[in-house]
Amino acid sequence: MNLDLLSLGIGFGLGGVIAAAVWLHFRSLHQAMTDRFKVMSDEALAQNHGTLVDQLSAREQSFRELIAPIAQRLSELDKSQHLLGQQLLGLGSETGKLVNALKTPHVRGRWGEVQLKRVVELAGMLDHCDFYAQVTTESGRRPDLVVNLPGGKQIAIDAKTPLDAYLRAQDAADETERKTLLLQHARQVREHIKQLSAKSYWEQFQHSPEFVVLFLPGENFYAAALQAEPNLIEASQQERVVLATPTTLIALLRAVHYGWRQEKLADTAREIAALGAQLYERSEVMTRHFSKVGDALDKAVGAYNSTLSAYESRVLVTARKLHETEALTIGKVIEEPVAVDSRPRLTATAEPEKIE
C-alpha cells in the first residue's frame, strides 16, 4: 500500500517535472520565435520604409512637374488680371471723359455725325451718300445725310437727337431719379420727332419717299426711350419719321446698296443691248459694202475675160499668122494668155446670186 502511494507520488512528481520542462521548452521556443518575428518585422519595416520614402519622393517630384505649368499659367493670369484691371480703370476714365464731353451739345452733335458716317462706311454706301457739309435744301435746311436711291430718289437722315437727359440718368443718385430722367429722355426724343417731321424734308427733295430717318447713335438710347414710352414707334410713324439705330440703319443702307447693284446690273444690261444693236446694224452695213465690192469684182472678172476673148479672136490670131510668114525676124513667141475663173466667195449663210 505504501509502495503504491510512493510510486504514485513519484509518478506525479516525475510528470510534473516533465510538464515543467515541456512548458519551459515551449516558452523558450515562443520567445525565440517572438524575437525572430520582431527582427523580421523590423527588417521588413526598414526596407519598406526606404521604398516608401523613395516612392513618395518620386511622386512629389512628378506632382511638382505636373503643377509647374499650372503655377506658371496662374502667374500669367495674375499678371493679365492686373493689366486688365489697369485697362478697365483707364477705360472707365476715358468713358467718364466721353460722357462729360457728350454733355456738351456741339460735341454730342459731332459725335452723332461721326457715328452716322461710320455706319455708312460699314454699309459700303459712301459712293451713294451726301453728307451734311455738301447738301443744303432750298429752304436753307441742312440734313446730316442724304442717301441717294436708284432712280434719282433721295432720303434725308437727321442725327441731332437730344441725349442730355439720358446721360444725366446714368449719374442718377437713386432709381427714382433715374426713371424720371429716362422718361424725360423719351419725351425729348418724341419732341424731336415732331420738330423733324415739321421740316418736311420729303417735300424739299425731288422724288423723295414721304418720310425722314431719325438716327439714334446707340442701341441703348433707343431701348431706353422705347422702354419709358412704348408707343414711341407708333407716334414716329404718324409723324413720317423712321427711328433708326446703327444696326437698323446698316440694314436699311445695305438694302439700298443692293438696289444700286441691281440698278448697275440693269444699266450694264441696257448698255450691252445697245452695243449689240449697234454691232448688228454696223454688220448689216458692212455686209452690203462687201456685196457691192463682190459685185464689182465679179463684173471686173467678166470684163477681163470678155476683153481677153476679143483679144484672142481679133488680135492674137493675126499676130500669130504674121509670125508664121517669117516676114518678121523677131524670134519671140507670144504666150497664151490665161483667163480668170475665180469669183468672189459667198459667206456660209448667204445664198449664191446669179452672175451675169
- Number of separate strands: 5
Q: Estimate the helix proportion, in percent.
A: 55-70%
Shape: flat
Quaternary state of the chains: single chain
End-to-end gap:
189 Å
Major sheet characteristics? 5 strands, mixed
**Which structural category fits the helices and strands?**
mainly alpha
Whole-number average pLDDT?
75
Radius of gyration: 58 Å
Order of helices and strands: HHEEEHHEHHEH
β-sheet strand percentage: 5-15%
Segments where pLDDT lies below 50 for 5+ residues? 352-356
> Within the largest sheet, what's the order of strands?
1-2-3-4-5
Helix run count: 7
Structure, described:
- The structure is a single chain.
- The chain has 356 residues and is mainly α.
- The protein has a domain at 97-267.
- 69% of the residues lie in helices and 6% in strands.
- The protein has helices spanning 2-102, 105-122, 164-170, 175-198, 219-228, 232-238, 246-324; strands at residues 129-131, 145-148, 154-158, 212-215, 241-244.
- It has a 5-stranded mixed sheet with strand order 1-2-3-4-5.
- Helix 2 packs across helix 7, helix 3 runs antiparallel to helix 4 and helix 4 (175-198) packs across helix 5.
- The protein starts with a helix and ends in a 32-residue tail after the last helix.
- Mean pLDDT is 75; it is low at 352-356.
